[in-house]
């Protein structure tokens, strides 16, 4: 019998020991793999977020001769997934890049998922968004980056791009979650949340389970895990309908391993009580303090989670959102297009990167101009 924190420490030590022995050390490497090829990470490492919570991340080295000033890629997975769901995309990026050296690529396990710890917190989008922001600043050292997220990871990436400011040079949203209001009808907030709070006009505290509290969340999460656990392979077959071979035993094991870890019930239960998040209209509005740079939206049109009709509606709304947002409709892609249509998503990203470099160079020029003005 081990205490929950010791469990994750032992899991991390086992992964690192496997790496030292020349093995992958990832969950997908321990089960049979089918479908499109995956790129094993060049590095598997752990970081204590806030000096407390053990979180895992994967890293792929940049190509030989890559520009050390070029933005890195930071990949953020969706709900109940893990960093390993990006390995097929990285393989395709490397395969399609040809002679163009890619920058380093990072993928992290959000707190509560994958091989990261699952402490007894009240999980919200803002907790995970803060983790992404701190990872970009601490682990990546503030280096310029392109954020890329899938599902809820897309919403987190969009929110983090607004917070990180000039560090972010591009944003990629793969079938992203998050509120997206009709651009023609969207009304910008009267004032920023920070300013409203300082004036005492903040909203009432968020109380998602007023009667039964945390025990109700834990019980609901445990029941959900028990009901879905044996059905994970079948559910993945449905979600990956256009590429069922990619819903292999390795993917199912990576998901179920995280779902049976200590604390998982609370995390899964939290998915039913997430607070209202800032709309994408706000966080992608550069004039309102959001991210105003280039955005790529690889949208799997055969999304079995939200539904194809909803996927089409959101693609249309993104196209109307603002200049600089490019939508790539993937007819043979589902809810996780980076994993069930990796070749198409990789091609779209490689076509998108010149716009990122142009935007980054413009940022540098604007910064130099501002410094010259101050110096004068």
Shape: globular
* Count of DSSP-assigned helices: 13
Largest sheet: 8 strands, mixed
Strand order of the largest sheet: 1-2-4-3-5-6-7-8
What do the pLDDT scores average to? 91
Report the sheet-strand fraction: 5-15%
User: H/E order of the elements?
Assistant: HEEEHEHEHEHHHHHHEHEHH
DSSP strand count: 8
Helical fraction:
40-55%
Task: Name a few traits of the molecule.
376 residues, alpha/beta, eight-stranded mixed sheet, 41% helix, disordered C terminus
Tell me about this structure.
The chain has 376 residues and is α/β, with parallel strands linked by helices. It is built from 13 helices and 8 strands. Helix 4 (152-164) links the parallel strand 5 and strand 6. Helix 3 packs across helix 4 and helix 6 packs across helix 9 (264-270). The longest helix has 34 residues, at 342-375.
Give the helix/strand layout:
Elements: H1 4-20, E1 43-49, E2 53-60, E3 72-76, H2 87-97, E4 105-108, H3 125-138, E5 145-150, H4 152-164, E6 168-174, H5 193-198, H6 214-228, H7 232-239, H8 249-259, H9 264-270, H10 280-283, E7 295-300, H11 308-319, E8 325-330, H12 337-340, H13 342-375
Parallel strand pairs: 3-4, 3-5, 5-6, 6-7, 7-8
Antiparallel strand pairs: 1-2, 2-4
């Amino acid at each position: 019998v081990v205490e929950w924190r010791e469990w994750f420490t032992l899991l991390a030590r086992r992964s690192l020991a496997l790496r030292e022995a020349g093995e992958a050390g990832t969950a997908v490497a321990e089960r049979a793999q089918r479908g499109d090829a995956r790129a094993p990470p060049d590095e598997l490492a752990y970081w204590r977020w806030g000096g407390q919570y053990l979180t895992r991340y994967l890293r792929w080295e940049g190509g030989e001769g890559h520009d050390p000033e070029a933005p890195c890629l930071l990949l953020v997975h969706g709900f109940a997934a893990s960093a390993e769901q990006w390995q097929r995309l990285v393989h395709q990026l490397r395969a399609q890049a040809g002679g163009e050296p890619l920058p380093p690529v990072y993928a992290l396990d959000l707190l509560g998922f994958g091989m990261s710890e699952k402490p007894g917190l009240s999980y919200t989008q803002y907790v995970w968004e803060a983790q992404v922001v701190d990872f970009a600043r601490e682990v990546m050292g503030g280096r310029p980056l392109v954020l890329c997220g899938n599902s809820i990871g897309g919403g987190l990436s969009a929110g983090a791009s607004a917070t990180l400011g000039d560090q972010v040079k591009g944003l990629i949203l793969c079938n992203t979650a998050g509120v997206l209001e009709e651009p023609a009808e969207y009304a910008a907030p009267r004032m920023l949340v920070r300013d409203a709070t300082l004036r005492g006009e903040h909203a009432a505290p968020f109380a998602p389970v007023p009667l039964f509290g945390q025990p109700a969340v834990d019980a609901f999460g445990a029941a959900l895990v028990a009901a879905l656990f044996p059905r994970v392979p079948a559910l993945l077959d449905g979600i990956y309908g256009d590429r069922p071979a990619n819903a292999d035993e390795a993917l199912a094991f990576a998901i179920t391993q995280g779902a049976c870890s200590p604390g998982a019930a609370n995390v899964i239960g939290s998915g039913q009580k997430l607070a209202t998040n800032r709309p994408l209209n706000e966080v992608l509005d550069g004039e309102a303090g959001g991210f105003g740079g280039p955005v790529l939206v690889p949208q799997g049109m055969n999304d079995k989670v939200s539904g194809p009709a909803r996927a089409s509606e959101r693609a249309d709304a993104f196209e109307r959102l603002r200049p600089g947002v490019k939508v790539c409709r993937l007819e043979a892609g589902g809810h996780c297009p980076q994993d069930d249509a990796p070749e198409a998503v990789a091609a779209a990203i490689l076509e998108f990167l010149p716009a990122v470099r142009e935007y980054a160079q413009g940022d540098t020029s604007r910064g130099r101009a501002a410094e010259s003005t101050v110096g004068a």
